Amino acid sequence: MQQVRAKKSLGQHFLIDLDVAQRIAATIDNYKHLPALEVGPGMGVLTQYLLENGHNLKVVELDGESVDYLKVHFPALDGRIIEKDFLKLDLREACGDGEMVVIGNYPYNISSQILFHVLDYKDQVVCCSGMFQREVAQRIAAGPGSKTYGIVSVLLQAWYDIEYLFTVDENVFDPPPKVKSGVIRLVRNNVTHLDCDERLFKSVVKTSFGQRRKTLRNSLRGMIPPEALPTLDEHHGDMFKRRPEQLSVSEFVELTNIIKNLQSVTIKE
Questions:
Q1: C-beta separation of 105 from 15 below 8 A
Q2: What is the DSSP code (8-state) at residue 70?
Q3: What DSSP element (H or E) covers 157?
Q4: Cα 164 to chain centroid, rounded
Q5: I want to staple 137 with a disulfide (CB 3.0 to 4.6 A). Which of 117, 132, 229, 269 is the partner?
Q6: Which segments in the chain show pLDDT lower than 50?
Q7: 125 pairs with which residues across the strands?
Q8: pLDDT tens, position by position, 236-262
Q9: Domain 8-188: what homologous superfamily?
Q10: Domain limits of the chain?
Q11: Helix (H) or strand (E) holding 98
Q12: Are the C-beta atoms of residues 168 and 138 closer than 8 Å to each other?
């Protein structure tokens, strides 16, 4: 059977370096006791090492040509290939209600969407590892004060400890992408709930970074009752004089509670 043709519409760049594939597979070696789901296996270069390493593996693949290839070359996956779009996949339906691991050489064109889908199952996915476009990987792992620290950094780091593991060059892919890649690992932290209104937290984070060059006083003006603006500094120190990239996750939680209280006082009055 011929090899699978890389499809630009699916963001496919097939990894051809076996050493890199082994290194990525090894990032979840501590989770062999849990079911693993590989996203977008393509021709199985990562799949082969996940199977060799003893993982209880399922794969989810949208490309019919890849599915046919996997069925021929990986008989161990019989009954374990999910022919669906990962972004529309119910992970509980696919892998059960227990804890699990997600791994993959993720399509770069939907990598952030993949992570937000994982975040929807944060109480189930205890580890998510794999390869992304390097700039995206760096952004996800960036800490406060970094120019790349942003919305995805805060929302994911609220629930996961994130580690940038290593960089991958363009020439280990077919076809080679125009950018370098980065491998990261997200491990679920001990947070069971944020000490704030979680829906408002997301809104505060997104609104703050929507105008990241502005101070929080200006970027969040639409969320703050007008009558509270003159006394912000008096009651909350320099919080609203800062820019969003200067705040840690815990400070965004604090900021969310401040805004919630300002809004509720106004409603009561």
A1: yes
A2: H
A3: helix 151-157
A4: 12
A5: 132
A6: 1, 267-269
A7: 100
A8: 999 999 999 999 999 999 999 999 999
A9: Vaccinia Virus protein VP39 (3.40.50.150)
A10: 8-188, 198-268
A11: none
A12: no
